[in-house]
Amino acid sequence: MNELTMNLKVDSKVPLYEQIYRYIKSDIQSGRIPYGEKLPSTRALSRHLEVSRSTVELAYEQLLSEGYVEAEPCRGFFVAQIDELYHIGQEKVRVPEKKEEEKTYRYDFTPNGVDLKSFPYHVWRKLSKEILMDDRTELFRSGDSQGEYGFRSAVCSYLYQARGVDCLPEQVIIGAGSDYILMLLSMILGGGLRIGFEDPTYKQAYRMMTGLSYETVPIGLDKNGIMVSGLRTSGADIAYVTPSHQYPTGIVMPMKRRMELLLWAHEEERRYIIEDDYDSEFRYKGKPIPALKSYDRNDRVIYLGTFSKSIAPAIRLSYMVLPKQLIWKYQERSSFIQSTVSKVDQLIVQRFIEDGYYERHLNKTRAMYKSRHDMLIEELKSHMDMCSISGEHAGVHLLLTFRDGRSEEELVKAAEAAGIRVYGMSAYRIRKTEKKEATILLGYANLTERQIREAVELLAQCWKK
Amino acid sequence: MNELTMNLKVDSKVPLYEQIYRYIKSDIQSGRIPYGEKLPSTRALSRHLEVSRSTVELAYEQLLSEGYVEAEPCRGFFVAQIDELYHIGQEKVRVPEKKEEEKTYRYDFTPNGVDLKSFPYHVWRKLSKEILMDDRTELFRSGDSQGEYGFRSAVCSYLYQARGVDCLPEQVIIGAGSDYILMLLSMILGGGLRIGFEDPTYKQAYRMMTGLSYETVPIGLDKNGIMVSGLRTSGADIAYVTPSHQYPTGIVMPMKRRMELLLWAHEEERRYIIEDDYDSEFRYKGKPIPALKSYDRNDRVIYLGTFSKSIAPAIRLSYMVLPKQLIWKYQERSSFIQSTVSKVDQLIVQRFIEDGYYERHLNKTRAMYKSRHDMLIEELKSHMDMCSISGEHAGVHLLLTFRDGRSEEELVKAAEAAGIRVYGMSAYRIRKTEKKEATILLGYANLTERQIREAVELLAQCWKK
Question: Does B97 fall in a domain?
Answer without folding.
Answer: no
